[in-house]
Write a structure and sequence with these properties.
mainly alpha, 76% helix
Length: 209
């Protein structure tokens, strides 16, 4: 069953290597199988079979970032290989950018996000990811512009409202923040980050209901 699932997943990603992969890949390794090491073994085998697949390297990199594995250095190597194999694949560049940003290399990460956004200018999730990276880097106005465009392009994506809400909380714009975070929670009630930031927004505006 696992082999068949991998096969079907690869078919889906080959047909939709951008937006579809952005949702499918991270959850596939981290949620479907309880044992990430078992899934890593499967991916290692697939990479040997298809060494030219950038998506496989990117997927393996995503799995290696799982906190149960903590293979962060190896993950960055896989991301870099994926980007070498597919330098014009927006999703591959975006996951590389996100990893670099979280590893503390904000400048390089933002440069990769810019490359990805240039390749996929109408991608809502990508604008949201770059917005979050810009927010972390202290570029609030650029981040808000990206979040606004992300919300226009993909209004059902909770990440956008959650991270814009968090940025507005830091700016002490609590009413606006609470409005965004209400949307984020409504779209995904299980996204704990949204609930945490909404508590901060409500405390900020002294709404204790």
């Amino acid at each position: 069953r696992e082999d068949k699932a991998l096969e079907l997943c690869h078919v889906a990603r080959d047909r939709d290597p951008d937006v579809g992969a952005s949702y499918l890949l991270p959850g596939f390794g981290q949620e479907t199988w309880a044992d990430p090491r078992h899934y890593l073994t499967l991916l290692d085998r697939e990479v040997k079979r298809r060494p030219g697949s950038a998506l496989l390297y990117a997927e393996r990199a995503e799995l290696k970032r799982d906190p149960r594995l903590c293979l962060y250095t190896e993950a960055l190597e896989d991301y870099a290989q994926a980007a070498r194999l597919a330098p014009k694949a927006a999703w591959v560049l975006a996951v590389l950018a996100r990893a670099l940003n979280k590893a503390g290399d904000a400048r390089t990460g933002l440069a990769e996000f810019d490359r990805a956004a240039a390749l996929a200018p109408h991608s809502g999730w990508l604008r949201a990811w770059r917005g979050a990276a810009l927010a972390r880097a202290g570029e609030a106005e650029r981040a808000l512009a990206d979040f606004a465009e992300a919300a226009r392009l993909m209004p059902w994506y909770p990440f956008t409202y959650a991270w814009r809400g968090a940025l507005l909380v830091r700016a002490k714009r609590y009413e606006e923040a609470a409005s965004d975070l209400d949307v984020a929670v409504a779209l995904d009630p299980h996204y704990s980050f949204s609930r945490y930031e909404r508590c901060k927004a409500r405390l900020g505006r002294r709404d204790y209901e």
